[in-house]
Amino acid sequence: MTMTNHNSPRDVHIICRDLFKIYKAQDLEVVALRGLDFQAARGEIVAIVGASGSGKSTLLNILAGYDTPSAGDIRVGDRDLLVMRGRAVESYRLREVGFVWQQTGRNLVPYLTAKENVELPMLLAGVGGSQRRERAEELLDAVGLSERATHRANELSGGEQQRVAIAIALANQPDLLLADEPTGELDTETARTVLDLFQSLRDRYGTTIVIVSHDPEISSFVDRVIIIRDGRASAEIVSLHSFRRAEENGAAESPREYILVDSMGRLQLPRELMDRVRLRERAVVTIDGDRVVVTPSESGDF
After folding, report:
1. Which range among 57-66, 134-143, 154-163, 287-296 shows the weakest confidence by mean pLDDT?
2. Is 27 exposed, middle or buried (0-12, 13-18, 19+ CB in 10 A)?
3. Please, what is the end-to-end C-alpha distance for the chain in angstroms?
4. Residue 198: which of 163, 157, 172 has the closest Cα?
């Protein structure tokens, strides 16, 4: 897969090429990623969607440094995650990537206030007291919770807890923010507030944001949607949030959906398209001018 035209090579923040992840349990092997290609530009918001078991959470955990790929190439900024080990992983998690879990309670230490929770990652990174307090106040203001700074988790709503979690994830000024189903436990209105927040924080800090989501409205809040199927990136939908803004101004456009071709030349055709033309195990590929034509094989071809 190549970057879309609006991303020049120097803008690329995340590069995954032919990425595999195989889990082994006794004599059983489960292939979670099957040669996945994925790129994201610096400062881009990308949503990863797909059915359960498609590999989207595996990809997110690898990007976060919580898991390691079995094979392939993966870089985030200057980091080669395929070979990163030990203290390099710890430093990466603490300073270069922020993570927001779906379970709101998992993101916060319950006996600390919102402000103390935001300060905690900076304390672990050795940031001085006055700088910690100033940064925590700035982030709580950025997520609209300055007035809730002294409240503990049980005194905050689910949406407020998730906004504090985002502030915590940004505490050490990471270039990359990852969110695993951040609206999964929220009602529709609160979910919209959180998704809007990702946009405003990207605009304010220039952070690259990758969100795994089942939320059907996620496409209206991101630059691209990557659809993962069977461990590979199969399709993408581009620049939907800009189309949403155009629609609000009375100049709506339809979002563009593409089937992705990976670095090995593989693509996944949607099942409904295959069924429509009765495409099964074999196909004939021909060149027609500047087009590649895939035609179902007739029984007489073999």
Report:
1. 287-296
2. exposed
3. 32
4. 163
